[in-house]
Specification:
The chain is mainly α and 127 residues long. 57% of the residues lie in helices and 0% in strands.
Length: 127
């Protein structure tokens, strides 16, 4: 059984070819009426208004999830950092309560300080 189409695709193709190859004639020109132009402008304005409203709603939702940014680097009082898109402003600001973690931190920082002091003494010896 052949496929049934709402429009005859072959006739549509032939009409398009005829329009493309013909000189502009009265039957090929559609003059838009004032009502049609106003309706098109109204539809376009409504579409833009809907897009603007949707965008504002998404921004409000985003700001509800992400608190306001107060400083120049994008961080806020609650630690949200817009550049990294995370709450990284709190890292390292609370004291370490676990003794094993304190020892690990001190060992790491001690190694770096020892290496820095060694490099500094070598530079001073060369001068």
């Amino acid at each position: 059984m052949p496929a049934v189409y709402a429009i005859d695709l072959i006739a549509k193709r032939d009409q398009k070819r005829k329009m493309d190859r013909s000189i502009v004639k009265g039957w090929n020109v559609h003059y838009e009426t004032l009502e049609e132009a106003e309706a098109a402008a109204r539809r376009k304005a409504e579409k833009l208004e809907k897009e603007r409203a949707a965008q504002e709603a998404s921004q409000e939702k985003e700001q509800a999830v992400k608190p306001g940014r107060d400083s120049k680097d994008g961080t806020s009082d609650d630690g949200y950092n817009a550049k990294t898109n995370s709450y990284s402003g709190h890292y390292g600001k609370q004291p370490v309560k676990d003794e094993s973690e304190k020892q690990q931190i001190d060992a790491i920082l001690g190694e770096k300080k020892a290496a820095f002091d060694a490099a500094l003494s070598e530079i001073q010896a060369q001068v």
